[in-house]
Design goal:
- The protein is mainly α.
- Helix content is 73%, strand content 0%.
Length: 491
Amino acid sequence: MAGPRRARRSARGGGGGCCWALPTGLLCAYGFFCSVRPSEPFLTRYLLSPYKNLSRTQVFNEIYPVWTYSYLALLFPVFLATDYLRYKPVVLLQGLSLIVTWFMLLYAQGLRAVQFLEFFYGMGTAADIAYYSYIYSVVDVNLYQKVTSYCRSATLIGYTVGSVSGQVLVSVGGWSLFSLNVISLTSISIAFGTAWFLPMPQKSLFFHHVPGQQLSCEMKVMDCKNGSAVQDHPAVQRAPGWEDESQVPLNGESHTAEKQSMQEQKVDIIKVLKDLWRDFLQCYSSRTMLCWSVWWALSTCGYFQVINYAQGLWEMVLLPSQSTDIYNGAVEAASTLLGAVAVFVVGYIKTSWATWGEVALALFSFLIAATVYIMNTVGNIWVCYTSYVVFRIIYMMLITIATFQIASNLSVERYALVFGVNTFIALALQTLLTLIVVDASGLGLDIVPQFMIYASYFAAISLVFLGSGIYSVMRAYRRKEQMHSRSPESQ
C-alpha cells in the first residue's frame, strides 16, 4: 500500500488520489458507454432486412471486407498519431468515427454508402489503441495494473450490458433493430461527450518525454510472477498530470523557444523511428518471443474472420426454418462473460510455459479448429451458438497466456511496439485471407465454404506448433540429460 500512497503524495496539482482517479474514472465511463451497442449482435440481420435491403453477397463479399482493409491501412498511422498527439485527440477521433458509423447505419442507403460506413468503423477500431494507452500517460507505473484492469473491465461490462439489453429488447420488448441502433448511437454520443473532459497528457511513450520522467527500458509494465509493477524508480514516481498553464512562456522569448522546441521535436521523430526499429530487431531475436508472437498474429487473424462472419453463418443456418427468433445478443454476452472467467482462471495455472507452451498452443488450436468445423457442418443453431461460445473462451484464454508471456520482460515502449506489430501482422494476414477468400474480386466464396477454410486454417496452425512444440520438449529433455551426465564427472 506504500506505493500508491507515495504516488498520491507526489502527484502534482494536489487533490491526493483524484490525480489518478479522475482520468481513470472518465476513461472507464468513456469505455463503458462506447461499448454499450445493443444493435451490434444483430448487425448482419439489420443489413439484410428491409431497412437496408442488401443481399447476402453484398454484405459478406463487398461490405464486410472494407472494415478489414481500412483497419489495416489506418492502424500504423493511427498508432503514430496517437503518441504524437498525446492520446486524447485520437480518443475523440474514435468517438466521432463511431458516431458517424452509427448515424450512417441509421440513415445511409445503398451499397457505396454502407461501404463508406465500414471505413469509419475501421477508423474507430484502429483508434482503440488510444483508449488502452491513454491512461499510462497520466498515472504512475505502480498503478498500471490496477488502472488497466479498470479500463478493460469497463469495456467488458459495457459490451455485456449492450448484448444483454439488445437481446431483452428484441425478444421480450419486441423492439425493432432500427431502435437498437438509435440506442447505440445515443450511448456512443454520451461517450464522445465524456471524452472531452479527459485531461490532456503532458507526455507520451515515444514522442513527448517530460524531463525527469523518461520511461527507460528498465521500467516494466508488469511482473507476471506476482502481478505487480516491478519498478520503483524515483524518476517515474510523480504522476504525470496534465497541461500546466504556468509553464507557458509569456515573454518575448517564447517564439524563439518554440522554434528551438520544434527543431528538437523533428530530431526526436527520427530518433524515435530508429529506436523503434532497433527495439523491433531486439525483441524478435528471442525464440520465445517470436513463437508466442507468431501464434498471436496467426490466431488473431483467424479469430477476426470467424467473429466477423459468424452472424452470417447463423443466418444461413436459420434460413431453412424461416425462424425470426435469434439469440445473438445472449450468445455474445455469454461468450464474453465465460471468456472473462477463463481468463481469470488462467492467472492461477502454474506450468512451465517455456517447455510446454507450444504443445499447449497446438492442442488448443486444434480444439478451435474443431469448434469452427462443428459450427459450420452441423445445421443446428444451438450447436452453432455453443461452438461459438467455446471458440471465444479458448481464444480469450490463450491470448491472455500469450500476453503474459510476451509482456513479462518488456518495457512500456517495447510492450506497445510488440503488440502493435503483432496486431498489424494479424491484420495483414486477415487482409490477404479476405482478399482471396471473401472479396468479390477474389474467390468470393459463400459463408459455408469460408468457414471450412477457417477450420482448416486453425488446423494448420495446430500442426505447425505441434511440430515446433515436440522439438522444444525434446531439446529441453536432452539438455537436462546432458546436465545430469556431466554432474558425476564434475564431482
